[in-house]
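Researcher: Let's do a round of design. I'm pasting the structure tokens now; please hold your answer until I've finished.
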């Protein structure tokens, strides 16, 4: 299979044509780098100048695609040029081949070209000076430095700047990618937080409205309907207030409303009273001291959601809310009757989002969460109710400073 070289870059074609035409112009006017009488000229005459000129111009076509091959062939052509009368265009194009080999070649080739050209420059300076002991001998080293080392050093500097710019571009792209990932994660976390807050703040009121409105529609009793409508109005007003506070948080200094402070465990008594007003038989046992704000918020929301679930799904019986602070954690436990016998009256549908929200809140604090029938503390017997047992929600929230930071 024949070798197929890639098409040369358009700029390389322009450089090759410019060098070739410039060399032909110098040849046409008879300008060379050495006179025919120079002892180094072994191949005199005007026509031999064109051979290395054409070869070096052809090597310029390989300066990006095959810079190492172009330089090696260019060295041979320059060697031939030195035994002719020479062409300035050939020398100039050779310096460009050295520059291209360092700039576009592999890193190993770039280092070798730089070291070899530097060594040749030193040798071309020291050896002739030691042999001839004349200041003019220094010109040989200067010419080698101008033709070989200077373009190589220039290519090395440009290569380093190019590599540094490429590294900076890659770092910028990586930083932008990480920033986008962080933004997506932040948006996802914020949406999950908003979903939890919206569910916990409004679901309790809407569940009570749904249950009592169904009762008002289904029971033909003016007193019961009036009482149900009163509960509906109370829950709708409170739910509307909660929604306005949530909108205030989302607008963030919009001027319409001020964001409300996060609820604390001091409001559990009001929460329990509200649940009693909705028809639940609730008892509260809260033994704790001052806790970190994230722990108090999580515990409040867990109790709130548990009472909402009890209102929607529990069987007749007592609902117990217990909070006990231990050395390094707060234990939250809500129990409600569970079984086939259901509370009289309409039920409100559930979506399961409440349990998911409670699990997420506990997971953010690196605690433990359980919810289900028959979950009791060690050493106690399950509470039995007619037709079933007990549904328990239990959460352990760490309260040490390192875990709640």
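Researcher: That's everything. Go ahead.
Model: Designed sequence:
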């Amino acid at each position: 299979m024949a070798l197929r070289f890639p098409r040369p870059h358009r700029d390389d074609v322009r450089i090759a044509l410019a060098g070739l035409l410039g060399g032909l112009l110098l040849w046409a006017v008879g300008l060379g780098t050495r006179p025919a009488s120079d002892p180094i000229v072994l191949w005199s005459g005007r026509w031999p100048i064109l051979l290395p000129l054409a070869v070096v111009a052809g090597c310029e076509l390989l300066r990006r695609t095959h810079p190492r091959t172009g330089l090696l062939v260019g060295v041979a052509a320059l060697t031939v040029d030195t035994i002719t009368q020479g062409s300035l265009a050939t020398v100039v194009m050779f310096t460009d081949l050295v520059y291209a080999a360092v700039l576009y070649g592999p890193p190993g080739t770039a280092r070798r070209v730089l070291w070899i050209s530097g060594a040749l420059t030193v040798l071309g300076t020291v050896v002739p000076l030691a042999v001839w002991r004349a200041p003019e001998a220094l010109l040989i080293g200067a010419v080698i430095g101008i033709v070989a080392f200077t373009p190589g050093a220039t290519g090395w500097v440009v290569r380093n700047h190019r590599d540094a710019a490429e590294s900076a571009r890659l770092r910028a792209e990586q930083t932008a990618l990480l920033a986008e990932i962080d933004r997506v994660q932040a948006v996802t976390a914020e949406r999950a937080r908003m979903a939890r807050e919206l569910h916990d703040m409004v679901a309790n009121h809407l569940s009570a409205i749904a249950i009592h409105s169904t009762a008002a529609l289904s029971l033909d009793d003016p007193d019961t309907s009036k009482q149900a409508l009163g509960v509906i109005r109370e829950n709708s007003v409170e739910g509307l207030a909660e929604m306005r506070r949530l909108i205030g948080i989302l607008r963030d200094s919009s001027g319409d409303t001020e964001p409300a402070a996060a609820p604390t465990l001091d409001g559990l008594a009001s929460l329990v009273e509200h649940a009693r007003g909705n028809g639940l038989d609730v008892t509260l046992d809260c033994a704790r001291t001052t806790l970190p704000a994230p722990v108090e918020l999580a515990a409040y929301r867990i109790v709130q959601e548990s009472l909402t679930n009890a209102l929607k799904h529990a069987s007749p019986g007592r609902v117990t809310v217990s909070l006990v602070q231990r050395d390094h954690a707060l234990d939250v436990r809500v129990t409600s009757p569970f079984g086939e016998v259901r509370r009289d009256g309409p039920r409100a549908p559930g979506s399961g989002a409440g349990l998911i929200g409670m699990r997420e809140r506990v997971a953010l604090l690196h605690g433990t969460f359980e919810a289900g029938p028959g979950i009791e503390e060690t050493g106690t017997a399950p509470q039995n109710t007619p037709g079933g047992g007990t549904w328990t929600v239990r959460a352990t929230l760490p309260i040490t400073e390192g875990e709640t930071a």
